[in-house]
Design a protein that fits this description.
The chain has 226 residues and is α+β, with helices and mostly antiparallel strands. It is built from two helices and six strands, in the order H-H-E-E-E-E-E-E. The chain folds into two domains: 112 residues, Hemagglutinin Ectodomain, Chain B, CATH 3.90.20; 57 residues, Roll (Nucleotide Exchange Factor Grpe, Chain A, domain 2), CATH 2.30.22.10. The strands form two sheets. The protein has a three-stranded antiparallel β-sheet with strand order 1-4-5. Helix 1 runs antiparallel to helix 2.
Length: 226
């Protein structure tokens, strides 16, 4: 039996063939792996795209749902707001009415208090003025030679103090003598013919009149020239 001797050329050829065969197998395996990876990548991309589309649809549906919810809440809030505004307007109207009523009550009360005080002063002065009249008559009746008498000086001081007290509370004497007759201030008890005075002029004051602020406490008793 003959043994075939392998020459270097043959081995080299076979080695080349073997190398070529090995490289070819590796290339094939690499290609298969690339195809597999490509397929897997494409599948993953398709799944991701499907998930994105599903997510987009879900987001759109979620947004639509939120929009409907917001719309429902918006209408409800608008109704509540309109209701609150109506209640606020009603409360404001009640407040303004109450404020106006209180202001009217305050003014009316102040006027009533002022009127009561005025009536009280007038009532007291009507009783006190006769005392003042007698005090004035007593001082006027003191003879000239007795005016420096301590008693007469004391009467004079009391009269002046009385008049000042009346002036302090707003009670003023009416100026009548020589003035034109005014029925609102004067009470004509006599008419005289006196050429020294013009017509309708107060010729003499018989009893002094007084006013409290703008109100007549007592009219002046006067003689009026014709």
């Amino acid at each position: 039996m003959m043994t075939e001797e392998k020459t270097p050329e043959f081995e080299e050829k076979n080695g080349i063939d073997t190398a070529c065969g090995t490289d070819s197998d590796e290339d094939t395996e690499a290609a298969e792996e690339i195809k597999t990876e490509t397929a897997e990548t494409e599948a993953a991309e398709e799944d991701a795209a499907a998930e994105d589309e599903s997510g987009t649809a879900d987001d759109a549906e979620s947004d639509a749902g939120e929009g409907r919810i917001k719309g429902r809440f918006g209408r409800k809030e608008k109704k509540e707001l309109a209701k609150k505004e109506a209640e606020l307007a009603e409360l404001k109207d009640k407040y303004m009415r109450t404020l106006a009523e209180y202001e009217n009550f305050r003014k009316r009360t102040e006027k009533e208090k002022a009127d009561i005080y005025s009536y009280a002063v007038r009532d007291v002065m009507e009783k006190m003025l006769p005392v003042l009249d007698n005090l004035e008559r007593g001082v006027a009746a003191v003879p000239e030679e007795s005016k420096d008498d301590p008693f007469a000086l004391g009467m004079e001081k009391i009269l002046r103090q009385f008049e000042k007290s009346l002036d302090d509370i707003g009670v003023k004497p009416i100026d009548a003598a020589g003035k034109e007759f005014d029925p609102k201030l004067h009470n004509a008890v006599m008419h005289v013919d006196d050429e020294a005075f013009g017509a309708n002029i107060v010729a003499e004051e018989l009893m002094k009149g007084y006013t409290y602020k703008d109100t007549v406490v007592r009219h002046s008793m006067v003689k009026v020239a014709n």
